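Bump. Still looking for ABC transporter permease structure tokens.
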Amino acid sequence: MTAAALSPALPTGATPSALQRIWLGHRQLSVASTVLLLTPFFVLMLVVFAYPLLSLLSLSVLEPHPTLSNYARVFENPVYLKVMLRTAWISLLTTVLALVLGFPLALMMTRVRGAVAVLLTACVLLPLWSSVLVRTAAWIVLLRREGIVNDVLQWLGIVGEPIKLLYTEGSVVLAMAHVLLPFMILPIYAALRNIPDDYMRAAAMLGASRRRAFFEVLLPMSRAGVWSGCLMVFLSALGFFVTPALVGSPQELMIATLVSQQVREMLDWPFAAALIGVLMAVVATLTMVFKKAVSFDRLMGGGA
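Sorry for the wait, here they are.
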């Protein structure tokens, strides 16, 4: 029995109400229904996100009196500038590594079927269901001086004694790339799935090699997914706290750890709020640049 048969009959010429339009299976909702459905979401975002964030940011310009000195400290002190640059550098390295590892896996996920496809999907999704703390702790076990990696290197004769792998910039980048890898793979996979296989076959029939077809057909059409994945990983890496704190050293201090120190140790909430304000400004700027880049890509015919 269909929904139309179950729904109450409407008088001739009558306009269905919002609930009746939903019941009748109409795809479009009225403005009032849309607002009613979205109200709980916006109230939740206002109470648990917008209000606390605005209250925190107000401390940066209102405590102890109206001033911008807290923001001036961020850019005047070379130590804080160094932390910001290091955060951007580590986030960039993490994004590049995630892209190098994630693109081939996303491409393979679009090519395989059956049990292999299920296995690859599980490998991508299962880490999202586990704690970041657990995944970071696993890297500590692997990279410590008595860990598996050092044992393998010594067994192969590559090194004569354990080397320092943990508490380095490389360990921070590697662990962060592993944690954020699903956020790179999923957008690229979604973009690659929307590219018809006929395009690659047509390129081959026209004499293009696999390499040329990849760089001139597949890669340009997947640019939107690549941009999305890079943006998600980079912005997430900018504010990462747990992984750098556990596998990094004071020399790899990032802005999230600096904010934590200002709040917990220095009790300098206004300056911590200023650091958060600067980080938010960077995130907003990058988001707008990304939006412009994707729009330009589509205008020029790029993306799927």
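Residues 78-111 form the longest helix (34 residues).

Edit: fixed formatting.
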